[in-house]
Amino acid sequence: MTSFAPLLAGLGTGLSLIVAIGSQNAFVLRQGLRREHVVPVVLVCALSDLVLIAAGVAGLGVLVSNAPVLLAVVRWGGAAFLLVLAVQAARRALRPAALEAAEGGLRTAVGAAVGTALALTWLNPHVYLDTVLLLGSVAAGYGEGGRWAFGVGAGIASIVWFTALGLGARVLAPVFARPAAWRVLDGGIALVMAVLAVVLVVR
């Protein structure tokens, strides 16, 4: 019973951090709507989160917080990557050919999808700030006996969220059979990624 409270706290904290509009979630959602390499993408995102959560709980968050140069490099690199993805999403929204994905259009190779998922995870500064630093510091507050239970809860939140987002997106497939819906989705993704890139460099 002593480990149940930190586990629930980790679950709640993990969900509060991950259930938000972001580049990673937008990519998983789009792959789910396209029914394209969903399982590999979900696995990459969830397993990456588990590694980062474990690193934060183990104390890596304290180490990274003392390396401002590393944080700056990650921040600017992540912003540049987000801007590239924003441009790509905007081009998809403007090009009718890109809106055929819901009806069996050109498929992305599994390697490209997995590579994008890895980049969106590991080149995103918010991942290190939220998953490693924030979760790591909160977990440390539960002491040696409770911090790993907290980490398990946060890990469960990540697995549940990415699975629901990727596989549950199929429910919306009929809506996105229309080109206009894809145009709106890609336009929204472009806007979100551009805003996130700007936020990263002005914070």
Automatic annotation (TrEMBL):
Main location: membrane
Localization per record: Cell membrane
GO molecular-function terms, A-Z: amino acid transmembrane transporter activity
Highest taxon listed in the record's lineage: Bacteria
Pfam families: LysE
Protein keywords: Cell membrane, Membrane, Transmembrane, Transmembrane helix
GO cellular component, as recorded: plasma membrane
Annotated membrane topology: Multi-pass membrane protein
Transmembrane annotation, as ranges: 6-29, 41-63, 69-87, 108-128, 148-172, 184-202
Protein name: Amino acid transporter
Top-level taxonomy: Bacteria, Bacillati, Actinomycetota, Actinomycetes, Micrococcales
